[in-house]
Amino acid sequence: MKFFSLFSFTFCLLIFISSCKSSREQAQEDGSKVDFVVQETPEILSVNFSLKSNDSINMISSIKNFGRLRGESDSKSEPSEGDLIISFLNESNTVCTQTILQNPLVKRLEYSETDDISTLSSKTVELDSVEFFVRVQYDPCFKHIKVGKFTEDKIIDIKVFRFF
Amino acid sequence: MKNIQKYGLFFPLLLLLCGSIQGQIMPVEVIHFSTTPSQATNIVIVGDGYTLEQQDKFIIDARKASIEMLNQLPWRNYRGSINVIAIKVVSEVTGASRDPNKLINNYFGSSYWSFNIERLLYAWHSSKVGNVLMSNAPFYDIGVIVVNDNKYGGSGGTFSAFSTHQSATEIMIHEIGHSFGRLSDEYWAGPQYARENSNMTQNTNPETVIWKRFLNRNEVGIYPHAESPTWHRPHQNCKMRFLGPPFCGVCSNELTVRLQNLSRVPPPTRPIAFFGADILEIEAGKTVNFFDFSSYAPTGWEWEFEGGTPKSSTDRYPRVTYKTAGNFNVTLKAKNANGENVLLRNDFITVLPGMGDNTPPTIKIKNIKVALDKNGIATVKPEDVDDGTFDDVALESLELSKTEFCCEDHGENVVVFKATDTSGNTASEKVIITVVDKILPTPKTKNITIQLDENGFASLKPKDVDDGSFDNCSIKSMSLSKTEFGIGDSGENKVIFTVIDVCGNSCEAEIIVTVEIFLSADSGNAELDNIKLYPNPANDLVVIEFLQSHDQMPQSLQILDLNGRLMKEVTQFEKTGKFIYLDVNGLPSGQYFVRFYNQTTVQVLRFVIEK
């Protein structure tokens, strides 16, 4: 009984503390922007995913903030085996923006293996699960996010997320 | 009571859980700022394993790493178009874990022994890195993580991580070569990484190899990898092969192209307002430094600080003091010729009740000299004598007991300098303000003609030739190099007119004094007490009779006409007698003067000749 009381108290306290989070933070987690904007301003969107080796994928969070992406795109021009194709779709599932990500489960690691700290070594590891993100220029047409995987020269859809 | 003890154990744990998911708006510090982020390569450094008390160390470490990087080519050549910003991320514990299966409570989950490799320092919560960057510097081009641990280690990837070991910065620079320059390794990493790239090829033809324009310069060639001779690198000692040496010409060029691309001036557009601050949670009475990070070259800034002092500012980097507790909004309107953009950050600054500040400011002042202006005024501001006065919280105001000085203040003046902090504590000290007058008086003169009096003398005073001399203060005295004139000064005389102001400055001007020996009809007497002239009018002879003793006899005498011209001079006559007989037969009718010279005086008698 005592344990139950303690558990109840703890549970209620957890809920209370969770609700104490700032509205700003809550806004981030449900995909809305961090700051209030007075007028229309270009925005950058960053979406965080978690991926497992069985192709189970989840959208962890997304964050928008003001700015314009510059320079070369992070997207690969052509997909390779295992790469992910992240498509931002409009209401009628037409692609607004698409980006190709190198398979995030395959990590290339560089490190110093010996006591000679001027030399590096490389190693590729295949992870069971990984967190990764994509950063794109936000477009109000974004309504869904479709994640596909390039396998055997074709794209297999893994999951579609309702974005807004 | 027992329950309280039990819950007491749980409560901090729950707070800890809550703290780990707090919002990601964080304070920032500018390490190196060159220009608006839209025309720069923006390197943003986040720290891991730095506790709240170690944030100053984080800034030092971030500064050290960025200096090391910006001192190397090609980064050094683009310092003017690179921004380095540090985001102050607070970890609960110091350093990195030694076991990725037992991560410690640092912010990004940095751990050595990642993937069973001792020196592989990897941030396991990498998505949090992206979130922190997006929240605080969404314009970032390069994100790096400095981990507060002295053990050598690092890793590459989207965000390179490196420890505070003295050699670890080289890992960061090498990894940025991959992530930013898209460069391949120039050591043999393995066949799985071999691909045609800007610094890796299987083409050995000097005419067509991708780095052909760099061949045979700065040791660039086509060097086979010993481990796989079909693949080649452009240099034997490039930073993409070994840590320590510089980038080779080929790799340096790749990085340069990207640096140039990001520093290109974009088409004209209105700004995108963005800002940060060096601290977001403060005690009442403390000061916050705000940083403008607005893109697209803003030229004007309008800040509004709810609850702050000042309440608004047009500075680019304002300092604001918050006196009362609360959560306060900050608004920035960034403007340029193409328009404006407004960013409001709600509850951006949290002010906690102050602990009470009883410490007065520390005064640092310097004695100064100030010069009077053309109106004889000198104005001094407190900032002019301030030499670094500071307060442990924040200064509210600086004052001087006297700020306006005039000619009467010439010399040393003891003035009281007073500093007041935001809590009303004051401190004051005396400072010496020396007022100097560097402006010389301006002499304005006129040339003058003077006539000798009946005794053959004339006096001149400075005011006779002054024509409105002036000074920014006032004139103390005027003088002439010569004031007495006699018969020997006939004609033009150069005389120096000197004017001195009340501050001792002097200036001279040369004037011409023309002396005319002109005797008017009124200036001579027909008879003196001791001399008698007759007949008068005369015809051909004039008798001059000395009525008293022989001592009065002149040494010489002259006959002058009405215009002062010498008609006759007589020196030969009996000096012991009582009479002098002058033959005036040759002189025409008219008025004449007889001037007698003896050793001390000149006397003049007037007479008329009628024929």
- The number of strands of chain B is 38
Radius of gyration of chain B: 48 Å
Oligomer classification: heterodimer
CATH topology (fold) name of chain A: Immunoglobulin-like
Estimate the global geometry of chain A from the Cα principal axes. Answer: globular
Q: Which structural category fits the helices and strands of chain B?
A: mainly beta
Known CATH architecture of chain A: Sandwich
What is the second-level CATH architecture of the largest domain in chain B? 3-Layer(aba) Sandwich
Q: How far do the termini of chain B sit from each other?
A: 150 Å
Q: Order of strands across the widest beta sheet of chain B?
A: 1-3-2-6-8-7
Helix content of chain A: 10-25%
Assess the beta-strand content of chain B as a share of residues: 25-35%
Number of strands of chain A: 10
State the shape of chain B: elongated
How many alpha or pi helices of chain B?
7
* Percent strand of chain A: 35-45%
CATH superfamily of the largest domain in chain B: Collagenase (Catalytic Domain)
